[in-house]
Amino acid sequence: MGEFKGLVLREADGKVTYTVETIGDADLPPGEVTVAVDYSTLNYKDGMILNGIGRLVRKYPHVPGIDFAGTVEHSQSPDYKVGDQVILTGWRVGEVTWGGYAQKARVKANQLVHLPDGFSTKQAMAIGTAGFTAMLAVMALEDHGLKPGAEVLVTGAAGGVGSVSVALLARLGYRVTASTGRPETHDYLKSLGAAAFIDRAELAKAPTRPLDSEKWTGAIDSVGGTTLATLMTQLAYRGSVASCGLAGGSDLSLTVVPFLLRGVNLLGIDSVMCPIDRRRAAWQRLAHDLPKDKLDAITQTIPLESAGEWAGRILKGGVRGRLVIAMTT
C-alpha cells in the first residue's frame, strides 16, 4: 500500500483546522478510478471549505479540493485506462467525498472527463471550476441568442470566473465591459480583452425603479445580490444574464417588470451537477476558444502548503485570476 501527501481538514469544538500530512491508499474513498493528481486549484468554494464556512463539509477528517487533473493510476472502468490524463470538476467531490488536495484521488468513473488534446494538466486546472463555469455561462448566453458584437457585462471581472469570461468573450468577438472595484486590475483586464470598465459600486446600488436604460445585451454575473438585481433592470430587450455566483449575497430583490416588458432571461449556471455531455462540450470549446497565452497570464502556481493562506485572500476578493495548486513535493 502506498503513502502520499495530502491536506487534511479536521473539526473540533466547531472549529475547522488543516494540516498537510501523510495519507495511505487504504484511506481513499471507494471508486472505480484512482488518479495520481498533478494539480488542483483554489476556488471561492474551496476558500469557504478551508475556513469551515457554510457547512459544505459534514464529515471529518476530510480532504478538500473541488477540482483536480492528473493521470490514471488504476482503473476498474472500461472508459479509462492506466496512463489516461483526466480532469474532475464538481459532483460535490471535495465536499461530500474526498477531493483533489492530495497526491492521489479515487472517484467514480462517470465523474471524470478526458483531458482535451492540446491541454496540459496544469492548464486544465488554470481553467478549473471557475473557467468551466465561465464557458457554461457563455454557452448559455449563446443558446439564448447572444451574437458576436454584442455588449456584454462581466461582474467580478478580476476573479477566476470573471477573468476567463473576459478572455473568452473577447476572443469570440463580443465587446466586454468589466466590472471591478480594483482599478489596479484595469491593465490586466485590458490585456484579456476588456474594452470598457464600470466600478462595482455603481452596480451595488439597489435599483430605484423597475427598469433602467438598456445597457447590456448579455451579462455574466458572479456577484449576485443587489448587483444582479441592478443589472437585470439594465438588460436590453430579450437580453440575458448568466448567474453563477453569490459573492455579493444570495438575496435577489427585483420586480417582474424586466421579464414582462423586455422579455429578459435569467439563466442559472450549475457547474457542479452539469450533465456529462454538456461537460465534454464545454471542455472542447475551452480547448478551441480560450487563448492559451491569456490563460497563462491569469495563472499563479502555489504549493499545497500555501492553500490555507490563500483561502483567506480569495474570500476577501484579494486574488486576481486563477490559483493552481501543485501536488509535487
Descriptive account of the structure:
By secondary structure, this protein is an alpha/beta fold. The protein has two domains: 3-115 and 298-326, Alpha-Beta Complex (Quinone Oxidoreductase, Chain A, domain 1), CATH 3.90.180.10; 129-268, 3-Layer(aba) Sandwich (Rossmann fold), CATH 3.40.50. Helices cover 29% and strands 28% of the residues. It contains ten helices and 15 strands. Strands 3, 4, 5, 6, 7, 14 and 15 form a seven-stranded mixed beta sheet that branches. Strands 10-9-8-11-12-13 form a six-stranded parallel beta sheet, sandwiched between helices. Helix 10 (307-315) links the parallel strand 14 (299-303) and strand 15 (322-326). Helix 2 (121-143) crosses helix 3. The chain is globular.
Keywords:
329 residues; alpha/beta; Quinone Oxidoreductase, Chain A, domain 1; Rossmann fold; seven-stranded mixed sheet; 10 helices
Class of secondary structure makeup: alpha/beta
The best one-word shape is globular
CATH superfamily placement of the largest domain: Medium-chain alcohol dehydrogenases, catalytic domain
The total count of strands amounts to 15
Q: Give the low-pLDDT segments.
A: none
CATH topology of the largest domain: Quinone Oxidoreductase, Chain A, domain 1
Based on CA atoms alone, the radius of gyration comes out at: 20 Å
How many separate domains? 2
- Could you name the CATH class of the largest domain? Alpha Beta
For the record, give the distance between the C-alpha atoms at the N and C termini, rounded to a whole number. 19 Å
In DSSP terms (H or I, runs of 4 or more residues), the helix count works out at: 10
Helix content: 25-40%
Q: Would you identify the CATH architecture of the largest domain?
A: Alpha-Beta Complex
The average pLDDT score comes to 95
Biggest β-sheet strands, sense, barrel = 7 strands, mixed
Percent strand equals 25-35%
Order of helices and strands: EEEHEEEEHEHEHEHEHEHEHHEHE
